């Protein structure tokens, strides 16, 4: 399918989905009482937004992207695609984002959370007059924020997939490592360049697990610990299961958490290999015996990175991914 056609389909899908999202969280704060547009022409993130979110109702969006959080100490930041949506697709996404802001109630620490752990993100929208509006969110606080993140993430992933061209041949099942590791089942396809980390501080990194949608997931299942670590099963699945696992690995991790439970070698552990259409593959290791500790091969070149603890949702998604 031609990249232009892919972008058109993505725009239509995002608009249709976002218009029906149920409200749940706070209107983002207006950063200035009287915006003073800077007539910016680029699509880069800015140090400070200068337009209220209400400007999305009156002006067309020229670009939309995820941007780093201002708080350097935030450990709950979500990993997300590094690209930017521009052109007609950006205008469609901007309209959808505005629709989600209508009557958006405040979300406070005492409100009932969603079924997911805290996951912080920030969206910036470049407007026609050169000003920039921002929409911050927390996927653990609001179902609407969860939809905001998911829809922009999906748009960026699919737009990048359309630009990447035809898919390569299906990958053969991975050779499962003897131990729980993220370093032996990774590959660099053309899309690996999109995983280069530009963060000055690794703790602020938002490099995603995979640069494009996951077209394949390989799972190696183990029991035991140490020298008694035993491979007990292996399987491979394609879309949409592979994408569901990738999304769960992004959202359903208690970021920054450390193991605090009794070791149980009887609980299953997993090596999970996610591959995209260009052949790029990145690996997660989920240590079920140690409270579901999650690490991943992050970036290009890939580095073993501790992510936190898997939620029951992520563990179920991996376990039930078998065809």
In whole angstroms, the N-to-C terminal distance is 27 Å
Q: How many helical elements?
A: 6
Strand segment tally: 11
- Strand arrangement within the widest β-sheet reads 6-5-8-9-10-11-7
**Global outline:** globular
Helical content (DSSP H or I, runs of 4+): 10-25%
Textual characterization of the structure:
With 323 residues, the chain is of the alpha+beta class. It is built from six helices and eleven strands. The protein has helices at 3-18, 55-58, 87-101, 143-164, 241-251, 312-319, and strands at residues 61-66, 85-86, 120-127, 132-138, 216-223, 230-237, 253-255, 269-275, 281-287, 293-298, 303-310. Strands 6-5-8-9-10-11-7 form a seven-stranded antiparallel sheet. A four-stranded antiparallel sheet has the order 2-1-3-4. Helix 1 (3-18) packs parallel to helix 3 (87-101) and helix 5 (241-251) runs antiparallel to helix 6 (312-319). It is globular and about 65 Å long. The chain starts with a helix and ends with a helix.
Primary descriptors:
6 helices, 4-stranded antiparallel beta sheet, 24% helix, alpha+beta
Briefly, what is this?
The chain is α+β, with helices and mostly antiparallel strands and 323 residues long. The chain is 24% helix and 22% strand.
């Amino acid at each position: 399918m031609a990249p232009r056609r892919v972008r058109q389909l993505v725009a239509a899908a995002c608009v249709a989905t976002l218009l029906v999202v149920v409200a749940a969280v706070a209107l983002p704060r207006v950063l200035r009482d009287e915006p003073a547009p800077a007539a910016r022409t680029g699509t880069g993130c800015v140090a400070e937004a200068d337009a209220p979110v209400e400007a999305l109702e009156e002006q067309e969006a020229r670009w939309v992207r995820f941007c780093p959080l201002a708080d350097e100490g935030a450990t709950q930041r979500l990993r997300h695609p590094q690209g930017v949506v521009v052109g007609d697709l950006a205008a469609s996404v901007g309209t959808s984002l505005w629709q989600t802001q209508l009557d958006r109630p405040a979300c406070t620490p005492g409100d009932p959370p969603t079924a997911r752990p805290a996951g912080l993100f920030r969206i910036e929208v470049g407007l026609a007059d050169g000003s920039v509006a921002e929409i911050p969110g927390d996927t653990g606080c609001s179902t609407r924020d969860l939809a905001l993140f998911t829809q922009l993430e999906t748009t960026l992933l699919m737009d990048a997939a359309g630009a990447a061209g035809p898919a390569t041949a299906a990958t053969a099942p991975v050779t499962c490592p003897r131990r729980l590791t993220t370093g032996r089942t990774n590959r660099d396809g053309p899309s690996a360049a999109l995983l280069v980390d530009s963060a000055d501080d690794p703790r602020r990194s938002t490099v995603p697990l995979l640069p494009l949608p996951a077209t394949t997931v390989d799972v190696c299942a183990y029991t035991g610990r140490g020298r008694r670590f035993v491979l007990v099963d292996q399987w491979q699945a394609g879309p949409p299961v592979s994408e569901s696992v990738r999304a769960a690995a992004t959202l359903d991790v208690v970021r920054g958490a450390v193991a605090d439970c009794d070791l149980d070698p009887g609980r299953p552990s997993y090596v999970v290999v996610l591959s995209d259409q260009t052949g790029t593959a990145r690996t997660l290791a989920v240590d079920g015996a140690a409270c579901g500790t999650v690490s991943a091969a992050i970036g290009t070149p890939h580095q073993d990175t501790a992510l936190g603890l898997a939620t029951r949702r992520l563990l179920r998604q991996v376990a039930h991914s078998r065809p």
